[in-house]
Amino acid sequence: MTVEHFQAPNDGALSPKMLTAYARDGVLVLENMFSRQVCEALMTRAGELVDGFDPDVARTVFSTTIRGQDRDDYFATSGGTIRFFLEDGVLTPDGNLNRDKAKCINKIGHALHDLDPVFDGFSRLPKLAAVAQSIGCAQPLLLQSMYIFKQPGIGGEVIWHQDSAFLHTQPLSVVGFWVALEDATVANGCLWALPGQHLEPLRNRYRYIDGALTTEQLDPEPWPDDGKIPLEVPQGTLVVLHGSLPHRSDSNFSDKSRHAYTLHLIDGACVYSPDNWLQRPNDMPLSGF
Ligand code: FE2
Of 15, 33, 135, 172, which is least surrounded by CB within 10 A? Predict the structure, then answer.
């Protein structure tokens, strides 16, 4: 089994073949959606944000001696801000960074698309709106954004998951836009997916239970490793991920970074579950394109 790669349509309007592939596979790969210049502009902007990042706060939160509750809060309240998350293994036993701060960051999240002018402009490009419309998202709302670094040598693994397990709506509606800002390969930790398995029900829910961030197992069956497909894509590719599609990525043990920008949409006609891990502050309503 393979996943077909398409040339991105200039205006983002998907062809019938693309729509058929997305419905069948739960993933759609659109190469050359963005130019090198556009990708580099986002990378430059991320670099500026990192320059302004004071590692002291995150250093405390990610220290292994800190209560899990503080780390949970740091995540849970990040839906309406721009926050930096550290890789595992970048703190010395006394809580200092063991390398340059720019090489310690796992990701920035989760409201870049609303709070940073450069990411706002990119996230609301008409051709992204056209992709959302093509796949039937009637009333798209831009829920969360992440800049993912996948640092050379240490960029951490992300295990099999379905995005709707985190960003749950009733009915399910989340769609992921994953943009390769650099070439993504097996060596530097590209996405892997199980095409067609988006038709399966959710196997987990990541939600608050009695005030605690909890992983609720709905089906103990692990995702099968056979049938997994690496999504090796060049810089500028847009990968559209159905919210129920299982996907993962390996650690990056290569010497090349694998920067990516992701945006998650939900349909405004659906109800965002009030027990999801990530919540937006009430004074920051979601908006569309
Ligand atoms: Fe994901």
Answer: 15
pTM of the model: 0.96
| Residue at 286 is within a domain | no
Partner residues linked to 83 by β-bridges: 109
| Ligand 1 mean position, distance from CA 94 (Å) | 32
Q: What is the whole-number distance in angstroms between the Cα of residue 187 and the centre of ligand 1? A: 19
Give me the residue label for tokens 């995702």: 223
163 Cα: distance to centroid of ligand 1 (angstroms): 5
Q: Which domain holds residue 226?
A: 5-272
Assigned domain for 277 exists: no
In three-state form (DSSP H/G/I as H, E/B as E, the rest C), the secondary structure along 120-133 is: HHHHCCHHHHHHHH
Domain assignment present for residue 288? The answer is: no
Ligand 1 centroid, distance to 184 Cα (angstroms): 15
Q: How far is the centre of ligand 1, averaged over its atoms, from the C-alpha of 178 (Å)?
A: 9
CATH code for position 140: 2.60.120.620
| C-alpha of residue 247 to centroid of ligand 1, in Å | 6
Residue 246 falls within a domain, yes or no? Answer: yes
**252, 152 in Cβ contact below 8 A?**
yes
The span from the CA of 12 to the CA of 34, in Å, is 11
Q: Measure the CA–CA gap between 266 and 64, rounded to whole angstroms.
A: 34
- Alpha-helical (H) ranges within 26-176 are 36-51, 55-62, 68-76, 112-115, 117-123, 126-134, 163-166
In the reported structure, the alpha carbon of residue 261 is separated from the centroid of ligand 1 by a whole-number distance in angstroms of 12
State in Å: Cα 157 to ligand 1 middle: 12
Per-residue pLDDT, 75: 85
Give the count of domains, the chain: 1
